[in-house]
Design brief:
alpha+beta; 5-stranded antiparallel β-sheet; two-stranded antiparallel sheet; 8 helices; 9% strand
């Protein structure tokens, strides 16, 4: 037996709702950006005075490299124990890896609920997947924001003369925001709000009312009396069968009378008429 909510709401299209498409597009994009920010060794850039002007040091959360502005060749796997002993590095390593794993779990949970070949998406399953994606974005923003806040306070064996933000910080911010927005939009599909517009649903009575409002009302039936009525035996007008045989006085219906011809004069029959 259908529930009350099933009887009151209906989806006019089998297409995937827009909020689910929005979340399923932003979440993978954010995951790729977070993956790049995690593995790339460019959370900050150092330009020490002990190096030539065209050389600089790139520090990430897993590796440190020396690069030049004139070539693409880099020298990685540099040792800096003091840098990797900072608390923010250990926290960033754990949270960034956890964020990547949680995002994959969230997508795996959301995909069965977002399937577009069903009449109704499974909003609860899709919402739980969106919640996981939202949490993964938060886990990305936390280490990124913390690292940026203490950018110049992170100790290193290299002299901190010119410290600049690396591109991994920017990619991490964008990826985390993508995941937060995508997960949040998918999560709000659990509840029906804005008159069902977030789910692409419409009330059944509104659909039926709009459908029948364009139809013309049925024609009014008029009872027309028939001419083949039986003659009433109890008529108020007396008549007899002889009167029915009499000629009814209809001037136009009468045939013209035959003129009599005076035949008293055999030679000129019309003289008498003159």
């Amino acid at each position: 037996m259908p529930t009350r909510s099933t009887e009151e709401w209906i989806r006019l299209s089998l297409r995937t709702p827009g909020i689910l498409i929005f979340g399923m597009v932003l979440a993978p994009c954010g995951w790729i950006l977070d993956l790049t920010a995690t593995v790339a060794p460019n959370w900050r850039t150092l330009h020490p005075t002990t190096l030539p002007p065209d050389e600089f040091i790139q520090q990430g959360i897993w590796d440190i490299c020396r690069a030049t502005s004139t070539s693409t060749r880099e020298e990685c796997n540099l040792q800096d124990t003091e840098y990797f002993n900072n608390q923010i590095i250990n926290v960033a390593q754990g949270l960034m890896v956890a964020s990547l794993i949680v995002t994959l779990i969230g997508l795996a949970v959301a995909i069965p609920g977002v399937r577009c070949w069903k009449d109704r998406p499974n909003w609860v399953v899709a919402g739980l997947g969106g919640l996981l994606i939202f949490l993964s974005g938060v886990m990305t923003i936390i280490p990124i924001a913390w690292y940026t806040h203490i950018l110049k306070e992170i100790t290193s064996e290299t002299a901190l003369t010119d410290v600049r933000v690396g591109y991994c910080i920017i990619l991490g911010y964008i990826g985390g925001i993508f995941e937060i927005l995508g997960g949040f939009v998918m999560f709000i599909g659990i509840c029906r709000c804005c008159g069902g517009k977030n789910r692409g649903e419409t009330r059944v009575d509104e659909v039926m009312g709009d459908r029948f409002s364009h139809q013309k009302p049925p024609p009014r039936r008029v009872n027309v009396p028939t001419l083949d009525r039986a003659r009433s035996s109890a008529s108020s007008v007396p008549y007899s069968r002889d009167s029915m045989d009499d000629d009814v006085s209809f001037p136009r219906a009468k045939s013209p009378a035959v003129r009599s011809v005076n035949t008293s004069y055999a030679g000129r029959p019309y003289d008498a008429d003159l």
